[in-house]
Amino acid sequence: MDIFQKCYDYTLVSDAKARDAYPYFIPLEESEGTEAWYHGKHLIMCGSNNYLGLTTHPKVRAAAIAAIEKYGTSCSGSRFLNGTLALHEQLEHELAEWIGKPAAICFTTGMLTNLGTVSSLAGRGDYIILDKDDHASIVDGTRLSMGGKMARYNHNDMAHLEQVLAELPEKAGKLVIADGLFSMEGDLAPVPEMAVICKKFGARLMIDDAHGMGVMGNGHGTVAHFDATDDVDLIMATFSKAFASLGGVVAGDADVISYIKHNARALIFSASIPPANAAAALEALHIIRDEEPDLPSRVIAIAKFMRDELRGLGFDLGKSETPVVPIIIGDRDKTFAFWKKLMDMGVFVNPVFSPAVPAGRELLRTSYMATHTQAQLDFVLNAYKTVGKALGVI
């Protein structure tokens, strides 16, 4: 049996493209934050994680360019060897302070942050307990651990989390991990309740705040939103969302961060964050912290406006309370048709199907930026209304 045979037999993509029904890997020709161009067509971007609109901020661009001029385009090595710059350590120090923890370590991507952190901490006899809606990087990090076992609890179901923990060996090491802001449906983890339950069973708590950092809690993240920083052991975030760059960070007690730093294979065996990306993330932090501290509240207000308007039109948005606003349709074909009609009208959103969401809960993932104008939002709302009525969604 040829190991490549499965590739030759995989016709799902080619069949979808032949029907003009392939919604992924769309090559944008140009992107300016809230606007993009595809095949020469102008689009309003409502499918980006650029929550604060900082990817096009002049100071972020200038910081990245200056870093290339000073350091070049790459560190050409691992953080463990020649790939650490003073810039990386400055970024870690300032992020730890911003997040509210003693120490932090940066990885090259958010995916690698979770892979490295979880796999290095979980060993034989340990248990990693995950929300069933946790990001794939957390699941994969658990699978890569040296003997750690995975347990799951129903999404945001604290009674089930307590039940799962009660059934685990009392003396086993336990780490509970949840997204802070869940990336598909825009709801928040009940962090304070989780912290109480974890303490009851001697478990540590880690929050993956990839989508909440820079947005919730006046920019300090979902844990800060709940005033629970001291109750959460590890807080992870990425730079590819609100921080307008590429990379990831995990923050916690100094001894724990040092252990991760010296044992995470995803850090030791990956090239470090390129200078331009480190500088861009650092400048984004400075803008949020020092120059435009209203950006997080601005995107929160825009998201509330959109949720109120969409619910008023009759759309099902689930339990979203953040700038991630799902339009839940519950039918694969209708979800694709909705996405395609929106594209034709000049609105970019993301269609999400099973297994990314449960079958029967197919949705359009829409998301909003602090830099969206009222005219853009009104245009988008009119498109949602027009297509929603045409397809019988509302």
Offer a few descriptive terms:
single chain, 394 residues, alpha/beta, Aspartate Aminotransferase, domain 1, Aspartate Aminotransferase, domain 2, seven-stranded mixed sheet, 15 helices, 14 strands
Describe, in plain words, how this protein is organized in 3D.
This protein has 394 residues and is of the alpha/beta class. The chain folds into 2 domains: 5-51 and 294-390, Aspartate Aminotransferase, domain 1; 58-291, Aspartate Aminotransferase, domain 2 (3-Layer(aba) Sandwich). It has helices at residues 5-8, 12-18, 58-71, 86-99, 110-121, 136-143, 158-166, 191-200, 222-225, 254-263, 265-268, 275-291, 295-313, 332-345, 374-390, and strands at residues 30-31, 35-38, 41-45, 103-107, 127-131, 149-153, 174-179, 204-208, 234-238, 248-252, 324-328, 347-348, 350-352, 363-367. The chain is globular, with a radius of gyration of 21 Å. The protein contains 15 helices and 14 strands.
Estimated structural class: alpha/beta
Number of continuous helical runs: 15
CATH topology of the largest domain: Aspartate Aminotransferase, domain 2
Report the radius of gyration as a whole number of Å: 21 Å
The count of DSSP E runs of length 2 or more, i.e. the number of strands, is 14
Strand order of the biggest β-sheet: 4-10-9-8-7-5-6
Q: How many domains is the backbone divided into?
A: 2
Q: How much helix is in the residues?
A: 40-55%
Q: What percent of residues are in strands?
A: 15-25%
Q: Briefly, what CATH class of the largest domain?
A: Alpha Beta
Task: Give me the oligomer status.
Answer: single chain
Helices and strands, in N-to-C order?
HHEEEHHEHEHEHEHEHEEHHHHEHEEEH
In the CATH hierarchy, the architecture of the largest domain is 3-Layer(aba) Sandwich
What do we call the CATH homologous superfamily of the largest domain? Type I PLP-dependent aspartate aminotransferase-like (Major domain)
How far apart are the first and last residues' alpha carbons, in Å?
Answer: 50 Å
Largest sheet: 7 strands, mixed
Instruction: Report low-confidence residues grouped into runs of 5 or more.
Output: none
- On the 0 to 100 scale, the average pLDDT is 96
